[in-house]
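COURSE: Structural Biology Practicum
ASSIGNMENT: Worksheet 4, Part C
STUDENT ID: 0417
INSTRUCTIONS: Below are two proteins. For each, the amino acid sequence is given first, followed by its structure token string. Answer the questions at the end about the second protein only.

PROTEIN I
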Amino acid sequence: MVLSINQPAYLPWLGYFERIARSDVHVVLDHVQFEKNSFTNRNKIRVKEGTTWLTIPVATKGKFGNLEIQNLMFAPPDKWRAKHWTSLKMTYSRAPYFDQFQQAYEAIYMQEWSGFMPFVRAMLMQHLSDLGIKTPLVFSSEMEANGQKSDLVLNICKALAAKSYLSGAQGRGYIDKKAFWDAGISLEYQNYLHPVYKQVWPGFESHLGVLDLLFNHGPDSLKILMTDQTPKS
């Protein structure tokens, strides 16, 4: 059984979903500390001039060091949802498949949410459905997940009886290979080669949120996302 783990992210990039698609189970690591200026609450979308950031404002004042992602709340006033949806409509209304997905995403953006994770979880499930990825998800906040960095990853792998761990590229810098070897768990590292595809504006910008691909290519998105991958162990 191949397992992958990643922190939750707002409008994740394509490599995020490639790793989920190649896994038998994916763990959303939502019980760890929120990192400022990470991709947890922001990503870029395509605009005529290039790219622009969409960032969810979260309440962090006086909370760093004791602020797990699962406990994140939106910073008042809660006006970002309407602004983000307006930005997406203005940018992608000309995209070939925007109309196909508009109703589902507008409903998510217009709904009132109790906190960051319920919103991001709903978005992630919608992304996976639209891409056709059926990998089961487990949320670390709903399981016994102890330890830091490599120990945490290994403990999750053991708890879920994984035989292989598919790590992100940065795992090379902190994964304790011997500990995984001793536990009988093989290691593989993602080496994602970002595909180039037609976007709504001339030219190409990579590493955007997944909606850029979905709105532009609809049912072909998963095929494009998984193109020309060369994983290395």
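PROTEIN II
(use this one for the questions)
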Amino acid sequence: MADIKTILPLPPANCEVAAEILRKAFKIEVEKTGITKVVLGLSGGIDSALTLFIAASALGSENVTALYMPYKLSSSISRRHSLLAARACGVEVVEKDLTPMADACFEEMKLTESDPGNGSAPGEAQARLRKGNILARLRMTVLYDQSVHYRGLVAGTSNKSEILLGYSTLWGDMASAVNPIGDLYKFQVRAISRHLNVPAEIIDKPPSADLWEGQTDEGELNLTYDLIDRILYHWIDLGWSKERIEEAAKKSGVEKEKVDSIFRRVMTSQYKRKMPLIIKVSEKTIDREFRYPRDWGM
């Protein structure tokens, strides 16, 4: 059986060049708005840590505020890793406990009857999804409020793999003013993080949204990021057909259903990657005939 690394190879990451591009472009895109500061949410994971390192390098640590926003079920490791990343960059961390507002919201939405658990029952799985979405949107509500307080833009922390899969919450963790890592697959996030000396224990731990004890992204997706990135890279970046990718994956023992699930996730989540659709009835419709750069008038 062929090795998938040979059948669907990933390109080497030119980390030095990529990091410099990200740093310079991030600084330009933030400061062209007339704002010199950013705020971002730290989760204890690699994506938010890399965003923090890029932001601090681009704007100076004094111009970056990181918020750690735990819920009562959040892991103590997430807090430790968030503080570890912030200390490495010399960035201030503001901690805001989401538990009171989240529990009040869960009670209003009648989501307090059962613990998130492992989502094995249909009703439990839906409750878990709703709670996760509420927490993601509450965190973004806090971030945008604090962006006014600190007079900084919200920096995004979602990577390209997540965005393409739709493995994120619309108007939650997908929201931001500038996202420096949104064009990086997970393998590139890891490589650039090592290059920038993000603490190894953050890089090496299993990716997790920290929604319940023992939760991991790969376990929830039933897919590894290694496989996800290889398929997405060959499809999106190299333009391979689905049939060609399926054939290559088959040679390395990957089930067709896993390939199909990746294609299905990308295609059915396209609405998340587009601005809200405006039904056209006039001569000049916003984002159709009326189109200007985002810094128009700045």
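ANSWER KEY EXCERPT:
Q1: The chain is about 50% helix and 5% strand.
Q2: Residues 12 and 188 are 9 Å apart (CA to CA).
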